[in-house]
Design goal:
Blueprint: E1 19-24, H1 28-38, E2 45-50, H2 59-62, H3 69-72, H4 74-82, E3 87-90, H5 101-107, E4 110-113, E5 119-120, E6 133-135, H6 136-144, H7 151-158, E7 163-167, H8 171-181, H9 184-187, H10 194-202, E8 207-211, H11 223-228, E9 235-239, H12 248-255, H13 258-270, E10 280-285, E11 288-295, E12 299-309, E13 315-325, E14 328-331, E15 335-336, E16 359-362, E17 365-372, H14 375-378, H15 386-403, H16 416-422, H17 430-445, H18 457-469
Parallel strand pairs: 1-2, 1-4, 2-3, 4-17, 6-14, 7-8, 7-14, 8-10, 9-10
Antiparallel strand pairs: 5-15, 11-12, 12-13, 16-17
Helix pairs in contact: 1-15, 17-18
């Protein structure tokens, strides 16, 4: 049925007056949202894909470990969406700083928030703020070349490290443990910034312990990620056989979970391993809850309590304690979304309140023209591909609102990029990103690599200026 438009109201979208949509966050969730919007033809759209970094791809670039080239190659697929004529990449623009959310909403008819979850969850234990204790978010930002990485803090923490404890049993925890256990020869072909490889080469790590407070059946890492540990060139994976002995009820519960079943099979294959001279010891230790970090000037150890898992899958203390030596402690126990100025965020869950399908709620009511997708919608769960279904669900709601007249095209306004440039901002467009991409490939070629990541914001912008000057 045709949409009935009240007199004086803006018209519904048409080919001459498309629905203008801003997607905040150019990671997988944002790009999948843009892709879903362009794959339909019922509602004409024009999309600005906005990111605070000068580069697209979000966690594909600054979250997936550099020693996962096949997984990082997904950006080649994502790039196709950036090339779409209805999508404009607008990088190096921070909503809340370069322009307010209220100002942005004057330029567009709808906003889809997909900017992820960048804050780490804390342990809440004594000694957590000692030097040598780091959140995984800082370590990952450093080894992936994130422009905001705190190089000085991370590199100081890594100096002289012989024993490291990584707290958490998700994929990020395994990434951190694996990177610490890699040899220089294994890291050299990756796109890591060269300073990262140099620092890791100088760290004499002899033992890495990945610590889980519950059992192996409750670990959240994927089997593919787990198996990779077995292929490290100079590290031996060690698992205590006692940690793999489950009672009948626990075995039955694990049998209903395909990922847990596969993980247990891999771990049991490693239970016979013993330390080998000259090889890094990579321990996977379960039923161990950190209760405090020890040290005065920096971390020297982790006090842990042995736990058991109750019938509901919760860790309960047993009252047995021991100390694990550690020169470095990395906590990887989850992420939280950050509040965007002017946008409500539930501080407990780190997500934007929504109606379950992606329509943003303000004070319990649906907020017209505001939508959410990705980690900031559902929390830090799933793999990269999970964002595709999630984004499509959100976009379906947006298109339904446009189809029934709830969401309308507002008509021409000043161009967003021109407005930003007029106030002194330096928005990075797709051709600018291509200049960065070419500069990274050229830098990588000097060392026989496909690419080396430029990690400083000024270096990224300099690559653009150099290309423009030619």
């Amino acid at each position: 049925m045709p949409v009935v438009v009240d007199d004086g109201a803006p018209p519904p979208p048409s080919s001459r007056s498309p629905l203008r949509v801003a997607v905040i966050g150019a990671g997988p969730a944002g790009i999948y949202a843009a892709d879903a919007l362009t794959r339909q033809s019922d509602i004409p759209v024009a999309i600005d894909l906005i990111d605070r970094l000068p580069t697209p791809f979000g966690l594909v670039r600054h979250g997936i470990a550099p020693d996962h080239p096949k997984m990082r190659a997904i950006r080649d697929t994502l790039h196709r969406s950036l090339d779409h004529p209805l999508v404009r990449f607008v990088g190096n623009v921070e909503v809340g700083t370069d322009l307010s959310l209220a100002e942005l909403r004057k330029h567009v008819d709808a906003v889809v928030y997909t900017y992820g979850a960048a804050l780490d969850r804390r342990l809440g234990i004594e000694g957590e703020d000692l030097p040598g204790s780091l959140p995984a978010t800082d370590v990952v930002a450093w080894y992936t070349g994130h422009p905001d990485a705190d190089r000085a803090t991370v590199e100081a923490a890594l100096t002289g490290v012989r024993s490291a404890v990584v707290i958490g049993v998700g994929n990020v925890a395994l990434d951190v443990g694996r990177i610490l256990a890699r040899t220089t020869e294994e890291l050299e072909p990756t796109d890591m910034p060269q300073h990262v490889i140099d620092v890791l080469a100088a760290a004499p790590v002899q033992e890495v312990t990945v610590l889980g407070r519950r059992g192996p059946a409750q670990a959240t890492f994927t089997t593919q990620e787990l198996r990779e540990l077995g292929g490290l060139a100079a590290a031996t994976v060690l698992v205590d056989p006692a940690d793999l002995e489950l009672d009948a009820d626990a075995e039955a519960r694990a049998a209903t979970d395909r990922n847990a079943t596969r993980n247990l099979a891999v771990l049991r294959d490693w239970a016979h391993h013993a330390p080998e001279p000259g090889r890094t010891r990579l321990r996977l230790r379960f039923y161990s809850r950190p209760v405090r970090l020890l040290g005065t000037d920096r971390v020297t150890g982790v006090e842990v309590e042995r736990t058991a898992v109750d019938g509901d899958g919760r860790a309960i203390g047993t009252g047995r304690f021991e100390v694990l030596p550690a020169d470095l402690v990395v906590r990887s126990v989850g992420y939280l979304g950050t509040p965007l100025p002017g946008l409500p965020v539930d501080r407990r869950t780190g997500t934007v309140p929504h109606d379950g399908t992606g329509r943003v709620l303000r004070d319990g009511r649906t907020s017209a023209g505001e939508y959410v997708a990705g980690w900031i919608k559902r929390g830090p769960s799933g793999v990269v591909g999970t964002n595709k279904h999630d984004a499509r669900e959100t976009v379906a709601g947006l298109l339904a609102d446009a189809g029934d007249g709830t969401l309308r095209a507002g008509g021409p306004v000043d161009d967003l990029v021109h407005t930003l440039q007029a106030r002194g901002a330096e928005p990075v467009l797709l051709e600018d990103w291509r200049a960065i991409d070419a500069a990274e490939q050229a830098l990588g070629a000097t060392r026989g690599r496909a690419r080396t990541t430029l990690h400083e914001r000024e270096a990224l912008m300099a690559a653009i200026r150099a290309a423009t000057a030619r």
